[in-house]
Amino acid sequence: MYILRCRDASFYTGAAKDLRSRVRKHAAGTASRYTRARRPVSLVWSRRVRTWSKALREESRIKRLKRSAKEALVAGGSGDA
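Below the sequence we write its predicted structure tokens.
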């Protein structure tokens, strides 16, 4: 699980099996259309998840959060707001 902060201050949430590789692809503009248009991006939060299915569920949950809850998550909170 990871969250990137884009040049326009928006957040991008994703799941990856190889985080370093995925972040490099985002930085190069080859990982997603969304981040390609908003480079540079920086990794601001990540968490290891035990299974891929749990990672996808968590990604979906985080994407539904309001911006304030994502900011709290990035700042070290639970993101449950």
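The longest strand covers residues 42-46.
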